[in-house]
């Protein structure tokens, strides 16, 4: 009986580990922010081991806004620390902050909130998977 319980627990742990790994892999792809004025903005999200990285480009008021982000995948919510390039930070924006994101059940959206490093700004963030 104890052996059966141990085997059952191990199987459950393996299933959880596999599903968590699959979720991290599911993040990888090309995304677009749906709540910004530039319809052609693009974000690439990729995984290197347990590290999740992203790089994004959009135009704000006709000027480029370039950023990158990084975090570790420990399940959801996903927490990414972002940084805007000094040469391509929109006027009045802070260069650094944190995004906290959840993946939609269908895997087509990352939805959450971004907060500036100082905490003086926060707003909703919605990414839609392009591919």
Provide keyphrases for this structure:
131 residues, alpha+beta, Lipocalin, 8-stranded antiparallel beta barrel, 1 helix, 20% helix, globular, disordered N terminus
Strand order across the biggest sheet?
A: 1-2-3-4-5-6-7-8
Low-confidence regions = 1-22
Largest sheet: 8 strands, antiparallel, barrel
Mean pLDDT: 81
Distance between the termini: 47 Å
The number of strands is 8
Order of helices and strands: HEEEEEEEE
Structural class: alpha+beta
How many separate structural domains? 1
The proportion of strand residues reads over 45%
CATH architecture: Beta Barrel
Principal-axes shape call: globular
Q: What is the alpha-carbon Rg in Å?
A: 18 Å
CATH topology: Lipocalin
CATH domain class name: Mainly Beta
Residues in helices, as a percent range: 10-25%
3D architecture notes:
This protein is α+β, with helices and mostly antiparallel strands. The chain has a single domain (2-129), classed as Beta Barrel (Lipocalin), CATH 2.40.128. It contains one helix and eight strands, in the order H-E-E-E-E-E-E-E-E. The chain has an eight-stranded antiparallel barrel. The chain is globular, with a radius of gyration of 18 Å. The termini are far apart.
List the helices and strands and how they pair.
Layout: H1 2-27, E1 29-33, E2 42-48, E3 51-60, E4 63-72, E5 78-84, E6 96-103, E7 109-116, E8 122-129
Antiparallel strand pairs: 1-2, 1-8, 2-3, 3-4, 4-5, 5-6, 6-7, 7-8
């Amino acid at each position: 009986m104890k052996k059966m319980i141990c085997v059952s627990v191990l199987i459950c742990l393996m299933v959880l580990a596999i599903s968590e790994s699959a979720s991290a892999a599911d993040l990888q792809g090309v995304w677009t922010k749906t709540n910004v004025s530039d319809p052609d903005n693009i974000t690439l999200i990729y995984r290197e081991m347990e590290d999740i990285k992203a790089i994004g480009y959009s135009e704000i008021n006709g000027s480029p806004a370039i950023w990158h982000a990084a975090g570790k995948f420990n399940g959801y919510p996903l927490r990414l620390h972002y940084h805007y390039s000094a040469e391509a930070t929109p006027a009045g924006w802070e260069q650094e902050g944190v995004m906290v994101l959840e993946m939609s059940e269908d895997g087509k959206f990352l939805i959450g909130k971004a907060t500036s490093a100082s905490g003086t700004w926060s707003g909703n963030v919605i990414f839609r998977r392009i591919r």
